[in-house]
Design brief:
The longest helix has 15 residues. The chain folds into two domains: about 190 residues, D-amino Acid Aminotransferase, Chain A, domain 1, CATH 3.30.470.30; about 130 residues, Nucleic acid-binding proteins (OB fold (Dihydrolipoamide Acetyltransferase, E2P), Beta Barrel). It is elongated, with a radius of gyration of 22 Å. About 35% of the residues are buried. The chain is built from seven helices and 20 strands. Strands 3, 4, 5, 8, 9 and 10 form a six-stranded mixed β-sheet that branches. Strands 13, 14, 15, 16, 17 and 20 form a six-stranded antiparallel β-sheet that branches. Strands 1-12-11-2 form a four-stranded mixed β-sheet. It is an alpha+beta fold.
């Protein structure tokens, strides 16, 4: 009997180093939306990581899955959207739109790709209890039979060679998220973190402070707004740092209030409120771009740090104009190259 949704996907726990020794399979960690695909003839269901339906947001993937020769299967994989030679997380987020007409327009402009890395069932047979050493050959057989002409459904590369995995890891930091290591002897651990680990590279960059935001309840700094200079010489907003100790906030406030000066950012400026933010998100104070700070980050894509960055140290030895986009942009596009072999 074919497996029915929802099925909690197998997860991975974070570790600091790629595990070595026999018994591991390594895969790229793709930066997209986790997605399980269920097909039973004409019925196709896309399930998100948290069990919600995704098909309405990715009609292009539904259409391409429907073209596969095999009629009954359950796949585990990642949804990504290539734009300009790199994967765009922004385009993925735009797909989560209530208007079907808008979704169709986005899908036509930038079709999604489904990267599959596990086969959970086919033709009425469940593979959940099979170990990965058995499941991977079945997945590769499925790919040979179904994906020859499927440009938007692709098989994720995998290796048992630590040196190959290490080379992949050196390419992480942009639209390639890291490395996943899975135990070859383990079955599919639905909803658990017992059979796989993930490793991410933490990168650093020197940025210019181009503005700040006050906390909601007081006139003390809540976050510093970060900028990098582009080729055209404009300072673009790329992210923020926050989480300062209460004892440091007053000194930071005095320091940056003394530097208040428009425009702060001469290129892309901080955006206004969104559905995830408060009304105060659009309120920020520009400063003279004289202060350089070094930050740690795990991800830069779409012209900004994907998540909040972590303060490392002030860099008075660095000139603001030395803080350029080429610190981070060269990392983008590595994932597509890896997927293409």
């Amino acid at each position: 009997m074919l497996l029915k949704p929802p099925i909690p996907p197998m997860e991975a726990r974070s570790v600091e180093e790629i595990p070595t020794g026999d018994g591991w399979q390594y895969e790229p960690k793709w930066d997209g939306f986790r997605c399980l695909v269920f097909r039973d003839g004409d019925k196709i269901f896309l399930q998100s990581k948290n069990g919600q339906p995704l098909a309405r947001y990715f009609p292009d993937i539904v259409a391409n899955v429907a073209k596969l020769p095999q009629q009954q299967f359950v796949l585990d994989g990642e949804l990504v959207i290539p734009v300009g030679g790199a994967f765009s997380f922004d385009q993925l987020q735009l797909r989560l739109h209530p208007a079907a007409s808008r979704v169709q327009k986005l899908a036509a402009a930038h079709p999604a790709v489904y990267i599959l890395f596990d086969l959970l069932a086919e033709n009425g047979n469940s593979y959940l209890k099979l170990n990965l050493r058995e499941r991977r050959p079945l997945l590769e057989k499925f790919a040979r039979s179904n994906l020859r002409s499927a440009k938007t459904v692709r098989l994720s590369p995998a290796t048992t060679d630590y040196k190959v995995a290490s080379d992949w890891f050196r390419k992480t930091g942009g639209d390639l998220d890291g490395i996943i290591a899975k135990r070859l002897s383990a079955p599919y651990a639905s909803g658990e973190r017992t059979a796989a680990v993930k490793v991410k590279r933490i990168c650093t960059a020197e940025c210019v402070v181009g503005g700040f935001r006050y906390v909601t309840s007081a006139r003390v700094i809540g976050s510093l707004l970060l900028g990098l200079y582009g080729e055209e010489g404009l300072l673009h907003h790329v992210g923020f740092i926050s989480g300062f100790k209460a004892s440091d906030r007053h000194e930071l406030t005095k320091k940056f209030e003394a530097l208040k000066k428009s425009p702060g950012f001469t290129g892309n400026a901080p955006g206004g409120p969104s559905r995830w933010s408060t009304e105060r998100t659009g309120e920020w104070e520009p400063v003279d771009p004289k202060v350089v700070v070094e930050v740690a980050y795990d991800h830069f894509t779409g012209g900004r740090f994907r998540h909040g960055t972590r303060f490392l140290r002030w860099r008075p030895d660095k000139a603001p104009r030395q803080c350029t986009m080429d610190q981070v942009e060269h990392r983008e596009g590595k994932a597509i190259a890896l997927l293409q072999g």
